[in-house]
Design brief:
By secondary structure, the protein is mostly beta strands. Helix content is about 5%, strand content about 65%. It has a single domain, classed as Porin, CATH 2.40.160.40. Strands 1-2-3-4-5-6-7-8-9-10-11-12 form a 12-stranded antiparallel barrel. About 20% of the residues are buried.
Length: about 250
């Protein structure tokens, strides 16, 4: 029965725009092996009166040694209806975190992103900051991060801009088993411009992950994401609401 449910979940439609909630992919479990990762995806296929093909693919790789943690994420979301695209977004993110004092440590990251339907040809972020885990228990972690990043944008219109933003986040993770296979994650990001605090972005996301087939390391990841931008490109709305369900395979 679970295998049938897995197939049905893969065929469910999902709605996805490029988001940058890295806390949703950070794994706080100290693995016995230095490398691990996961593949997450969703598929929508419709034939008949309306022909639709859409998919999401998200690949994540971790490396952890003592207090060092590096992860690389690549993600794409594509969709066509009658050979006309309605989704075309992707991004890649690389981050290094060093926690030498357990409760606090520096982190460095770089990211590249594009989203055709947000008029975003390219966005390049490079940043540095501090991460703190004020509460770190077996089944509950509260993390707080703050820092600064450069924000380069090239729009589909050809317009370019380079800014410096503050970036801060608060993350709450509650797990229901020792291996953290079943968990709930809440994260909020706040990213204002240093020279114009009224220009800011907010990203609020809630994730719930549940084991589907334990022996295959397969889970269901459900998420609700709300993103608000006070100054988006012309003809792009200030907010997005994203609801999606994906299948996750961990190794």
């Amino acid at each position: 029965m679970k295998k049938i449910f897995l197939i049905l979940m893969l065929l469910l439609p999902s709605v996805c725009y490029s988001q940058v909630n890295i806390e949703s992919v950070r794994d706080s479990v100290k693995k016995e092996k230095p490398f691990w990762g996961e593949v997450k995806g969703g598929l929508e296929l419709q034939k008949g009166n309306v022909n639709v093909l859409a998919y999401d693919l998200d690949v994540l790789t971790h490396f952890q040694k003592k207090s060092h943690h590096i992860f690389l994420q690549g993600k794409t979301s594509q969709g066509k209806q009658e050979d006309k695209k309605f989704k075309n977004a992707s991004f890649a993110h690389l981050r290094w975190t060093w926690m030498p004092w357990k409760l606090i440590g520096p982190e460095v990251f770089t990211q590249i992103q594009h989203d055709q339907f947000k008029s975003l040809k390219m966005r390049q972020l490079n940043g540095i900051g501090l991460r703190s885990e004020f509460f770190h228990f077996d089944t509950f972690v509260m993390s707080l991060g703050t820092g600064a990043m450069t924000d380069f944008e090239r729009l589909t219109s050809g317009e370019e801009s380079t800014d410096i933003r503050s970036t801060s986040y608060l993350s709450l993770t509650k797990s229901f088993d020792k291996k953290k296979k079943n968990l709930i994650l809440l994260t909020v990001y706040y990213q204002p411009l240093f020279n114009n605090p009224e220009d800011y972005r907010i990203n609020l996301e809630a994730n719930a992950r549940t084991v589907l087939i334990s022996s295959w390391n397969i889970s269901i990841d459900n998420s609700i994401n709300y993103m608000y931008d006070t100054n988006p490109p012309d003809q792009v709305q200030t907010n997005d609401l994203v609801i999606k369900a994906n299948i996750v395979y961990e190794w």
